[in-house]
Design brief:
The protein has 313 residues and is an all-alpha fold. It contains twelve helices and no strands. It has helices at 2-35, 42-45, 47-70, 74-99, 109-117, 123-136, 142-189, 191-201, 205-214, 220-227, 234-256, 266-312. Helix 5 (109-117) crosses helix 7 (142-189) and helix 9 runs antiparallel to helix 12. The N and C termini lie far apart (71 Å). The relative contact order is 0.06.
Length: 313
């Protein structure tokens, strides 16, 4: 029985090592293919040096992952394995998007506008799809897609179409985080440690997420995936994402249209600077006092509900 278990363990270990090696090879191959697609610029000029550096980094990560696996250092092995997997997946996706010509059309607002408008009557549907993919997988800044929507459809329709794609993409990203993120986190740090971590942030997660989604200085697309492994419920996330995305997208659309706060006047510049300073202050405040702020609003809400019940009785 022991011999059988030992054989199974060795086979499993050998297959894992083979898979890690294949991931490393995939990352190197697609890195070379992607770098060679550049025909001009600094990447083209120093392509050989960049290829050598990328290949060396991926090779080192691969060897470290295998070494930690063999030495039974589980956490370090898992960290390096995830790094290799993400690098291989990202570079493969970039290469496929590059050779399809899609990335070349996403370099600027004008390029994206021309690309979407080329679909004629279906331009709105294509734009909504791009906004959905921008949240879930595309390496395109949201300000580029929102700005293209303003140029294509105007600030109102552009904001509506942007909200349709971004909100649906945000919910999909949250679902992915909830389904796969929790499992990945449990696999990485262990179920007990994950539960301890979630308990530690409980009380801060809702107020912090609302703030981060509301202001434009945070990676809100990534936060949708992260929110999936927090204590935030799907119902709360959907309500929150509707409110915060609508506010932020409409504000961005009308700001880009220069009709909300003009950035070509002295008072407009002062207001934008004040807005930035306020965001920095609120970031520090919510990070340090997020649990107390959330508790305060909960107590206020509870008192109002109780007083209404008493009045109603």
């Amino acid at each position: 029985m022991r011999n059988k278990k030992a054989v199974v363990g060795k086979v499993k270990s050998a297959l894992t090592i083979l898979f890690i090696s294949l991931l490393g090879c995939t990352g190197i191959i697609f890195s070379v293919l992607y770098i060679e697609t550049f025909s001009a610029g600094i990447i083209c000029d120093y392509s050989h040096i960049i290829i050598a550096a990328v290949a060396a980094v991926i090779s080192v990560l691969t060897m470290l992952s295998i070494m930690f696996l063999r030495n039974n250092a589980k956490l370090l092995y898992k960290l390096f394995f995830i790094a290799i997997f993400l690098i291989a997946a990202a570079i493969t996706a970039l290469y496929l998007l590059k050779i399809s010509g899609f990335l070349d059309k996403m370099d600027s607002v004008e390029d994206l506008r021309q690309y979407v408008s080329s679909y004629g009557n279906n331009a709105a549907l294509i734009f909504i799809l791009i906004q959905f993919l921008q949240v879930v997988m595309l390496p395109v800044p949201s300000f580029v897609t929102v700005a293209a929507g303003v140029l294509l459809f105007g600030p109102l329709k552009g904001a509506v179409f942007s909200c349709a794609g971004i909100i649906s993409g945000s919910i999909a990203a949250f679902a992915v985080g909830r389904v796969f993120g929790v499992k990945a986190a449990k696999w990485l740090v262990g179920e007990e440690n994950l539960e301890k971590g979630l308990k530690a942030i409980k009380g801060k997660d809702k107020i912090v997420l609302i703030f981060m989604f509301l202001f434009p200085f945070f990676p809100d697309d990534v936060l949708c995936f992260v929110a999936g492994i927090t204590t935030v419920s799907p119902f709360f996330f959907i309500i929150m994402i509707f409110i915060t995305r609508i506010i932020s997208v409409f504000a961005s659309s009308y700001s880009m249209n220069n009709s909300l706060i003009p950035y070509d006047t002295w008072w407009g510049i002062v207001l934008w600077l004040c807005f930035f300073a306020l965001t920095v202050v609120l970031t520090v405040l919510i990070y340090k006092k997020g649990d107390k702020i959330e508790r305060y609003f909960k107590e206020k809400f509870t008192k109002k509900r109780k007083s209404k019940k008493i009045t109603g009785d």
